[in-house]
Amino acid sequence: xxxxxILGSTGSIxxxxxxxxxxxxxxxxxxxxxxxxxxxxxxxxxRTFRPALAVLGDAADADLLAAALRAEGxxxxxxxxxxxxxAAATAPGVEVVMAxxxxxxxxxxxxxxxxxxxxxxxxxxxALVMSGRLLLEAVxxxxxxxxxxxxxxxxxxxxxxxxxxGVRAPGVRRVWLTASGGPFLRVPLASLGAxxxxxxxxxxxxxxxxxxxxxxxxxxxxxxxxxxxxxxxxLPPGAVEVVVHPESIVHSLVEYVDGSTLAQLGHPDMRTPxxxxxxxxxxxxSGVQSLDMLRLGSLGFxxxxxxxxxxxxxxxxxxxxxxxxxxxxxxxxxxxxxAFLEGRLNFTAIAEVIERVLECQPAKPVGAxxxxxxxxxxxxxxxxxxxxxxxxxxx
Length: 395
Ligand code: NAD
Ligand code: MG
Description:
The chain is an alpha/beta fold and 395 residues long. It has 16 helices and eleven strands. Helix 2 runs parallel beside helix 3, helix 5 packs parallel to helix 7 and helix 10 packs across helix 14. The longest helix is centred in the last third of the chain and has 20 residues.
């Protein structure tokens, strides 16, 4: 039995992970579950999966959960906040950690899981984009594994020979990251300023949390994934290409020097990459139907429009700058997306805020985690100031 901790268990990835695990009761045992809010849902998950530890972001919610667990005679212990997340990631009996917290909030627990030598299933791309090689070094030092959950990176992983993360596989010329194009692929640029959060979150192919849904609508998600791919597969900026593929059937491709291009295909359902990484190198049922090639019809591929989606270009520039630039990009994006979701910022101003933050915060080299955290904090402050000033820049 593999002991599993799920960080972000109440989210879209967390719930899909529990769905896969529930199909294999003899193979996986849930040891720890962690979320920020939604204590009722976490209680329900504790009833079903009986973890040793449950973690919530807030002490009052944690007290409510602990009282409910006691009342039902469940032995699950309850912990709070960042210390609780790290306890969950490193708890005895945990071999696999699903890192599915959204945003920078997942960095500390993902690093802790890596340092402790766990198999880290990385959905939380922001943690890798921010910390870059530091996370890869933590995986190497801990002696564990890092398996990508992001569908594109999981697809690339499946098309590559086995090898350590961060090292370019021999014979790889480049990788092609597919992008659905999000809900605004065919929407005229002029009308994007007025789109609402609900419109931005109505993704045509994937059902996901609200932050990544907005990132998919701006194409920042693909920008973050471009940085994620460079790091995971040891590729220089020019060796990762983005191609728009609206059907979301081909999840990404690896191009080799001999003219071969390998792809992974499947229905757009995250349970496939989750099941792949949970069981790797075995294969297990995920609950996802196989593709019916006779009904698939034609698949389209086109170049992304960087004028319509400036976030992609901003991420490419941050990838080229390196150092703290990806952390600053990510932090500015998190602040801008939160403001958009709260109705304080226009959709098109998300890219403007990020651009201004990056202009005034030149990339510095990353020696240690403190450099990343400082860049993250500076960019958050700068982005908040920018938004407060109504889209204008405030030094
Ligand atoms: P979501 O918003 O549905 O869920 C986020 C989860 O993280 C929730 O359980 C929430 O409680 C938890 N969380 C947030 N802040 C926390 C904190 N401070 N402490 C503890 N828990 C916290 O998001 P999601 O769509 O499941 O995405 C999760 C991550 O996976 C993101 O990094 C996203 O980019 C990545 N990802 C998601 C998908 C997808 O299909 N949903 C696909 C690829 C990658
Ligand atoms: Mg993805």
